[in-house]
């Protein structure tokens, strides 16, 4: 709170005379502070001519109570008959944003004790509804780190969707297939699961840098599945059966896939084990990448062969159903795929 202030409250009888709180305050201000009558230019100086009560008539509260208030009709009435005077404490400053008065409530959250997201969720779900119900016309919004985090998540969501479309296009063009890129990219959600598990194991909270690592992880975990799908395609072109090509992709490319993933994770281990203050910002990103790659690799060795077989079998059954509905004979390609 600031210093002491004088508060004017208009009486109900004054409203019948056409007076308002704004007109009352304006007349009191003109009498004690003054109203600018004109400006006189004196060289570089701008002199303002103010009209107000003489000094001996604006020294005390009694002078205020003895002043007369002019009504819209031009009549003058005593101040005491139209308003009341009270005393209170004034604000040190009043902050406005978009012409609306604002109050800022800030706090520092210790991430070691509570997750910042949990505090924000608790405020939005438990405190804010009661506040809005008690005070109509009040609105609220997040600023500072909380607002920046929400903006970051929104921007990362857009960037992630764009990255997924780009990855799909880059895989679909050389493979000449619309379905195989989906098979390859099916491991991305498992990389996300691995990143979350890694944060739990390492005892770290998911932060903004963790999200950066997860976005980068989407482009890394598809490497192993891309190797397997490419191997199966080449083996089938060389004359191998579908089943044998799928089995060979897991056995013959096992060493390359596992070594690639483990060496990548091992290269990130020094960052995860670093204890310096500077490294604490990038450790969540390293955790997302390393654990996401390891978890996705283990899933890839089982998931990709299964999805490849389901893809071929699904297309064969779909084509067979279409041929049956159209009354056509079963094609050779359908029989071979089935």
Summarize the structure.
62% of the residues lie in helices and 12% in strands.
Structure description:
With 338 residues, this protein is of the alpha+beta class. It has three domains: 1-93, Multidrug efflux transporter AcrB TolC docking domain, DN and DC subdomains (2-Layer Sandwich), CATH 3.30.2090.10; 94-141, no CATH class; 145-337, Multidrug efflux transporter AcrB transmembrane fold, CATH 1.20.1640.10. It has 14 helices and eight strands. The strands form four sheets. The chain has a two-stranded antiparallel ribbon. A two-stranded antiparallel sheet has the order 2-3. Helix 10 (222-237) crosses helix 11 (242-252) and helix 11 (242-252) packs antiparallel against helix 13 (283-326). Strand 2 (35-42) and strand 3 form a beta hairpin.
- The average pLDDT score comes to 84
Examine the secondary-structure arrangement and name the CATH architecture of the largest domain.
Up-down Bundle
- Sketch the major β-sheet: 2 strands, antiparallel
Question: How many individual helices?
Answer: 14
Overall form: elongated
How many domain units? 3
Unreliable stretches: 331-338
Sheet with the most strands: spatial strand order: 1-6
- SS-based class: alpha+beta
The CATH topology assignment of the largest domain is Multidrug efflux transporter AcrB transmembrane fold
SSE order, as H and E?
EHHEEHEEHEEEHHHHHHHHHH
The named CATH superfamily of the largest domain: Multidrug efflux transporter AcrB transmembrane domain
Name of the CATH first level of the largest domain: Mainly Alpha
Write down how many β-strands occur, each being a DSSP E stretch of 2 or more residues.
8
What is the CA-atom radius of gyration, in angstroms? 37 Å
Helix content: 55-70%
The CA-CA distance between the termini, in Å, is 81 Å
Residue share in β-strands:
5-15%
């Amino acid at each position: 709170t600031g210093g002491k202030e004088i508060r004017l409250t208009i009486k109900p009888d004054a409203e019948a005379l056409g007076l308002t709180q704004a007109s009352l305050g304006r007349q009191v201000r003109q009498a004690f502070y003054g109203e600018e009558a004109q400006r006189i230019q004196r060289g570089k100086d701008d002199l303002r001519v103010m009209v107000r009560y003489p000094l001996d008539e604006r020294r005390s509260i009694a002078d205020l109570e003895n002043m007369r208030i002019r009504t819209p009709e031009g009549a003058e009435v005593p101040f005491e008959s139209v308003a009341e005077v009270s005393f209170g404490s004034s604000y040190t400053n009043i902050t406005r944003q978009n012409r609306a008065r604002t109050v800022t409530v800030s706090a520092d959250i210790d991430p070691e004790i509570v997750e910042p997201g949990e505090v924000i969720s608790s405020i939005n779900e438990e405190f804010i509804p009661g506040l809005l119900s008690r005070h109509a016309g009040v609105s609220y919004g997040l600023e500072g780190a909380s607002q920046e985090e929400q903006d970051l998540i929104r921007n990362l969501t857009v960037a992630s969707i764009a990255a997924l479309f780009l990855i799909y296009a880059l895989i679909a063009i050389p493979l000449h297939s619309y379905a195989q890129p989906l098979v390859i990219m099916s491991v991305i959600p498992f990389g996300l699961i691995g990143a979350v598990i890694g944060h739990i194991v390492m005892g770290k909270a998911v932060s903004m840098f963790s999200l950066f690592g997860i976005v980068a992880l989407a482009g890394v975990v598809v490497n192993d599945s891309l190797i397997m799908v490419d191997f199966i395609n080449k083996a089938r072109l060389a004359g191998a059966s579908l089943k044998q090509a799928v089995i060979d992709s897991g056995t013959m490319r096992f060493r390359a896939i596992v070594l690639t993933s483990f060496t990548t994770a091992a290269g990130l281990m020094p960052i995860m084990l670093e204890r310096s203050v500077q490294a604490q910002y990038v450790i969540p990103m390293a955790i997302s990448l390393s654990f996401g790659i390891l978890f996705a690799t283990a899933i890839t060795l089982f998931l990709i062969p299964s999805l490849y077989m389901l893809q071929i079998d699904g297309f064969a059954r779909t084509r067979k159903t279409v041929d049956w509905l159209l009354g056509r004979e079963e094609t050779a390609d359908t029989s071979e795929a089935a």
